[in-house]
Amino acid sequence: ITLICVCVFTSLCMSRTTLICEDTRSRGKPATFVKKLSDSSVEQGKSILLESTYKGTPPISVTWKKNGFHITQSPRCSITTTEKSGMLEIPNSTKEDEGEYTCEVANDAGADMCQGQISILGVLQLKETNGLLGSSVVLECKVYGSPPISVSWFHDGYEVTSGDKYQTTLTDNACSLKVNSLKESDMGTYSCTATNVAGSDECSAYLTVRERKLPPSFTRTLRDIHETVGLPVTFDCGITGSEPIEVSWSKDGVHIQDGYNVQTSFLNNVATLQFLQTDKSLAGQYTCTASNAIGTASSSASLVLTGWLVIK
């Protein structure tokens, strides 16, 4: 039995005192934890469940805090309290739910508290990516959670490993996959999977490999032609570049259209301009212009007509 006694002097001139004693048994047993909170990691999207048990003389009040701020019942947070236990549940965890959680219990006889650190394991979404044939592309994402964290990369469900073709890195929770010398076969879905003691999480994105776009260029330019009036004449040149390529012809800056005496074509990367019969009015400078979405190129040459064709 513990007694708290206080001596009260009723008068400075009297030696008699009054002894007031209180039996602390009337306060009951203080609130103390039997099972305390512990640190844990949770996979993003899974439920966070914090539970503690305690003992002491009722009534016992239970208070929850996160990073020092009070937590109350809400649509995102469920709090359940009984005479001997307290439970806090967050059904659909996010990165923002990470932090230090505190549970405090108290009654008239005393108080107790315990803490647990919650870490969320997750992977931030990859972005859809485009790459050019022959080039390199880098896929990047962020991972978070309690270390150690291991990261694996997959292409259409098959795991890829570091080497000449693929290079993987994980630095300060930033992970990346570099794909070198892109081919059409490299197109597909790439996934990043992060794993720790809490579980695993993954994100995916589609990689599209496109042909490298090139402006038109001439593999063979036009050449000057010297011919006799009346004979047929053909200009031709070689053109390369990303399709579609449009080809046009002009003479002395004036556009040429197909007609009864003139024919143009662009087949197998060869552009041609043909006159079935010539006269002196056709002499001049001819230009072939090739265009696509990337750029334009041109080549020019002269047609020189001399004499007259004599038919006997």
TrEMBL record:
Highest taxon of source: Eukaryota
Keyword Repeat recorded: yes
Signal peptide: 1-15
Keywords: Repeat, Signal
Domain Ig-like, chain residue ranges per copy: 30-119, 134-208, 216-306
UniProt-listed InterPro entries: Ig-like_dom, Ig-like_dom_sf, Ig-like_fold, Ig_I-set, Ig_sub, Ig_sub2, Striated_Muscle_Regulatory
Pfam families hit by this protein: I-set
Coiled coil: none
Protein name per Swiss-Prot or TrEMBL: Ig-like domain-containing protein
